[in-house]
């Protein structure tokens, strides 16, 4: 992202494919209410092996939240309240409209790419798109 | 073959049955034109559906979603929408 500063924006759509992921997605948004969405987001990936097979991962995720100095009671209460459900559902519907059926799926402007891409490939695709929308000399 | 002819004869209306004669070249041409038109429409509809499915639904992708976390510059030339699952 830093390489393309001012030229690229990333919009994240957490796309929960199972109940465990749904809890994690809601927890991330709830962490966002405390101003730490990205920290929590990165932590979910870093510690993925520690929680992603749990049927009810909220307790474990709350433990992680402590490490980020989050208010864990507020985080749990936020998830339990279900107030992020609607938002999560809206993203699912949006993803389905775009025929997203597996993750990760990315749209670089209108160009769809499915599956994990190497950094080099992503850079190439972004450059290609930048050249398309901003031809040199304009 | 005989059975097939019989079956076909049964389906024809009385007016068509008598006198039974082969279709004139004009009628054949009409049938071909109609058949061709139907086929063209079917192929066109099929092609359109496939195109709509395959193109990346640009109208839906314009702008960025509200209530979403973003990195980078708003209004940038390239917007990446990432759908990812935490597990």
Task: Write up this protein.
The complex is a heterodimer of chains A (138) and B (87). With 138 residues, chain A is mainly α. Chain A folds into 2 domains: 2-11 and 102-133, no CATH class; 19-97. Chain A is built from 7 helices and 3 strands, in the order E-H-H-H-H-H-H-E-E-H. The two termini of chain A are 22 Å apart. In chain A, 33% of the residues are buried. The mean pLDDT of chain A is 91. Chain B has 87 residues and is mainly α. Chain B has a domain at 17-59. Chain B has helices at 2-11, 14-17, 25-54, 58-61, and strands at 70-72, 78-84. The interface between A and B is large, with 52 and 30 residues. Strand 2 of chain A pairs antiparallel with strand 2 (78-84) of chain B.
Quick structural gist:
The complex is a heterodimer of chains A (138) and B (87). Chain A has 138 residues and is mainly α. Chain A has helices spanning 19-33, 37-46, 48-51, 58-67, 72-81, 85-97, 119-133; strands at residues 8-14, 105-108, 111-114.
Along the chain, the helix and strand elements of chain B come as HHHHEE
Low-pLDDT segments of chain A: none
What structural class is derived from the secondary structure elements of chain A?
mainly alpha
The best one-word shape of chain A is elongated
- Sheet-strand content of chain B, in percent, reads 5-15%
The total beta strand count of chain A reads 3
Count of domain modules of chain A: 2
Major beta-sheet overview of chain B: none
Oligomer: heterodimer
Strand and helix map with partners:
The complex is a heterodimer of chains A (about 140) and B (about 90).
Chain A: E1 8-14, H1 19-33, H2 37-46, H3 48-51, H4 58-67, H5 72-81, H6 85-97, E2 105-108, E3 111-114, H7 119-133
Antiparallel strand pairs in A: 2-3
Chain B: H1 2-11, H2 14-17, H3 25-54, H4 58-61, E1 70-72, E2 78-84
From the structure above, extract its key features.
heterodimer; A: 138 residues; mainly alpha; 2 domains; two-stranded antiparallel sheet; 56% helix; B: 87 residues; 4 helices
């Amino acid at each position: 992202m830093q390489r393309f500063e001012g030229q690229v924006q990333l919009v994240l759509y957490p796309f929960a494919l199972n109940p465990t992921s749904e809890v994690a997605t809601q927890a991330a948004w709830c962490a966002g209410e405390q101003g730490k969405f990205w920290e929590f987001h990165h932590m979910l990936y870093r510690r993925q092996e520690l929680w992603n097979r749990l049927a009810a991962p909220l307790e474990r995720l709350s433990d992680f939240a402590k490490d980020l100095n989050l208010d864990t009671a507020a985080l749990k209460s936020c998830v339990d309240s279900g107030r992020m459900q609607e938002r999560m559902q809206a993203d699912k519907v949006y993803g389905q409209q775009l025929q997203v059926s597996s993750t990760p799926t990315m749209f670089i402007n209108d160009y769809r790419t499915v599956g994990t891409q190497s950094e080099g490939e992503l850079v190439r695709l972004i450059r290609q798109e930048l050249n398309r929308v901003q031809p040199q000399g304009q | 073959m005989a059975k097939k002819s019989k079956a076909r004869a049964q389906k024809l209306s009385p007016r068509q049955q008598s006198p039974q004669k082969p279709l004139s070249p004009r009628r054949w041409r009409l049938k071909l034109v109609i058949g061709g038109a139907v086929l063209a429409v079917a192929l066109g509809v099929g092609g359109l559906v496939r195109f709509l499915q395959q193109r990346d639904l640009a109208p839906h992708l314009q702008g960025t979603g509200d209530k979403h976390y973003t990195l980078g510059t708003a209004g940038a030339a390239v917007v990446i929408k990432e759908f990812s699952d935490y597990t």
